[in-house]
Amino acid sequence: MVDQLSRSSLLITRHNPETHKSILLIAHTSFYQPSEKWEYINSLLIE
What's the predicted TM-score (pTM) here? Predict the structure, then answer.
């Protein structure tokens, strides 16, 4: 599953149905590059 967190960052989630474990990847995209520096990505709360 892919969620767009902002204009320049994505959250990609991979879920294993056998073990019920998930892996999260947060990444900047190459589609939008800010003029000065990359925006700060806030911490995620996982429950």
Answer: 0.67
